[in-house]
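Q: I'm building a small set of examples for a reading group on sequence design. Run inverse folding on the following structure and report the sequence directly after it, with nothing in between.
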């Protein structure tokens, strides 16, 4: 006996769900951003370490990190006492993707009521 499954059509899903999905996809849409996340899997890294590992300019790395920070995919903390040349350490909090998915599901549930 075949189990029946209920599928939602695109028109029955809330528009906000598509916007959220698009935001997540845009955040991860660049190969360098994926490489940054891969580099941060094993733990915190400095900007200098990320630059050396990815072979990318400081400006370009800064732009990618700003996008990832803006979407709360990575977090940074300032290390060292020199305020004229702060050394930022970046990390990708564990569970950021599941949190995004839970948020997406919560938005879907509340919008469909």
């Amino acid at each position: 006996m075949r189990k029946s499954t209920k599928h939602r059509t695109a028109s029955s899903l809330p528009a906000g769900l598509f916007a959220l999905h698009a935001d997540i996809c845009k955040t991860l849409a660049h190969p360098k951003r994926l490489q940054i996340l891969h580099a941060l899997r094993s733990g915190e890294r400095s900007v200098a370490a990320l630059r050396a590992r990815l072979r990318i300019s400081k400006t370009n790395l800064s732009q990618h990190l700003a996008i990832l920070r803006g979407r709360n995919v990575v977090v940074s903390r300032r290390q060292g006492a020199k305020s004229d040349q702060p050394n930022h350490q970046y990390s990708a909090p564990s569970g950021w993707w599941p949190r995004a998915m839970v948020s997406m599901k919560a938005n879907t549930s509340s919008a469909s009521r």
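The longest strand covers residues 75-79.
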